[in-house]
Amino acid sequence: MTPSALAAPGTLPPVTTGGRVRVVVADDALLVREGVQRVLGLYPDLEVVAVAGDLDELLAAVEQHRPDVVVTDIRMPPTSSDEGIRAATQLRRTAPDTGVVVLSQYAAPGYALELLSGGSQRRAYLLKERISEPDQLAEAVREVARGGSVVDPAVVEVLVAGARPAGDPLAGLTRRELEVLEQIAQGKSNAGVAASLVLTERAVEKHINALFAKLGLTAEPEVHRRVSAVLLYLASLR
Q1: Distances in Å between the alpha carbon of 217 and those of 158, 187, 188, 209?
Q2: Average pLDDT by consecutive 10-residue portion of the chain (238 residues)?
Q3: DSSP 238
Q4: What whole-number distance in Å separates Cα of residue 154 and Cα of residue 169?
Q5: Are strands 21-26 and 123-127 parallel, antiparallel or unpaired?
Q6: 3-state DSSP call for residue 235?
Q7: At 68, phi and psi to the nearest 5?
């Protein structure tokens, strides 16, 4: 398995300015937690500074250690439902420079869309069963620390299959709509897109609404439509 990087490595800054990437590992399964810690310990540029077995321990460890990256399972105590995704959402507000690598047993569209709903920067979604080499996890951690994003191709295929209309999904877009979509794929807000393309925010909103309609993304929440549109654009580049 070769995970898909959602941002070109060449466009990203170095991993850290100080050398090692500092990592917090969270998983309620002792053997998995210790296994991930041991794998990351193989690389001198990666340092596990703390481990956690549930959501509260994870958030406390981030508060105490301010890591570059969190590597976390999705389902942990107290509810064993979506704690890893909730942590990623909360950390986007409270620790925006901390990246999150989610390790999951499931190619679940709902989890992935929620993880990426605030932007794909510093986020990765990997499937445990498809990580066959230590380098794959280590590279994902480095990519997220640089501000990039990595999503397992199996997850991308599930998401794109759910969002793709018949035929070439981008064929009906105008050149300006494609330019707007490309800017969105770079993680820019509407204001950022407007500044880059020398447009008003109102004009950008009109182009976004038009491309959503042409891509058949009319029945989803706003954040999901934005992620789905970006995934369709990225899939067209492969």
Answers
A1: 16, 19, 19, 9
A2: 43 56 96 94 96 96 96 93 93 94 83 80 88 91 90 75 61 87 80 91 92 79 75 69
A3: -
A4: 19
A5: unpaired
A6: helix
A7: -75, -35
